[in-house]
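Crash report, auto-generated. Payload:
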Amino acid sequence: MVPSRCFDDCSQQEHMRTLLTVGIMIAATSTATLADSPYLSHDRQSELIRLVRQDCGSCHGMRLTGGLGPALTPEALQDKPAAALLSTILHGRPGTPMPPWNNFLSESEAAWIVDALQKGFPDAR
Amino acid sequence: MRASISAVFLSCVVLAGCASPGLRGTGDLGVVIERATGSVQILDTTHHTSLARVEGLGDLSHASVSYSRDERYAYVFGRDGGLTKVDVLARRIDRRIVQSGNSIGGAISPDGTLVAVANYEPGGVKVFDANDLSLVADIPAVGANGKRSKVVGLVDAPGHRFVFSLYDAGEIWVADMHDPKQPVLHKFQDIGKEPYDGMITSDGRFYVAGLFGEDGVALLDLWNLDAGVKRALVEFGRHGEKLPVFKMPHLEGWAATGNQVVLPAVGQHEVIIADQNTWKEIARVPVAGQAVFAVARPDGRQVWINFALPDNDTVQVLDLPSRRIVKTLKPGKGVLHLEFSPRGEQVWLSVRDENRIDIYDPDTFTRIGSLPAESPSGIFFTPRAHRIGL
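Recovered output after restart:
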């Protein structure tokens, strides 16, 4: 899936559509278990786990307890809306070192990561 | 006399703590961090071997190492606030403490008596006795804004000082440690937005903090603190179209080669060659991606450069006299760090995703050895013990 470029400069309508899609996607992924996600192969899930632990871990810590970037533990993320987290992953946070990851991740992959982070991220397998 | 020597020998055998047979020096040894498993391996650069794995160092997803001045002990600073003193001769942990919730690096004092750790959480610097790791001084990093700040870029400096930067507050502090329990702080405010790392030139004179939040670097002449912090290399950094940075450049790896320093640009696929005395830009050289480490061969002729995602499978070699990239290598996915042997006849690369350390001959660019390692990251050889700022 090609990630939408819609962020700050998109029309309200487009933005709403993105949020709606994201909402549906998150609802869908949260009901599925990590192992049998309808969207991602087992291999891709393993790659994503490695990416988050190793590469996001450069700033957020391999145990995701924070570093230069904030902690990404379920406790730290419990009050954060999933759509905002998804947008942060895909588009980065201007004015901070958080870069956009949309060249590495599709929207559904980012949504899978958000869901997994909020549940408690799996260890590398 | 002979009896007492054999008694010592026997006790070594019995205790098995003396794992290394016979006497040996440590000048050709080093450690590599195994970031996923919380372990280090002890490396031998003469024989291209691993002597041992030492486990139980906690979360090493970000880690750095300083050495005792006798090159026997490696002080390993881990992500989880762990400070572990590893005995590279006995190949075991000598002492270990968890001194904060989250730390980024550390330094050892010029006389080797104090080890300082830069902490993110709670933000500040803690100073420990290098012998037994007991706490000597605690320096909370509360900026002029009244808030506690993450600390980065901690280095030792001549004059029994530590120098460090406050990431959130945008300050540089110099701590005079002549009375270790009562550090005298010299604070410089408004030095620039988001200093993300710092380094000191090999002569110990200039402290340089890279700025993420704005252009240029913050420069402090440690021979003349009264002159204050100046902005330099304003053209350095994120001018023009900025590119995303998928891994922060590291300044410790900034190559200082005689009168020139080679710096990774932030958000640009370039390295910058600057004059170390005037801090003016000399040249920019396009490279394969966002440079992370730019490490000079000890003779200063070559600089080896690694990169952030998505180019972290690549290493490039810059020839300084011609200012050209003379070689592009593809050692494998996840090249995280590189370290030269003291005289530069070999360079060791950690290739994280291949679970390997590779050894190259920098004259021929050929691989001359390889060792297995679990998600290796930083490689630190013992001669760092005698370099200011490491």
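Post-recovery validation: The domain at 43-125 of chain A is CATH 1.10.760.10 (Cytochrome Bc1 Complex; Chain D, domain 2).
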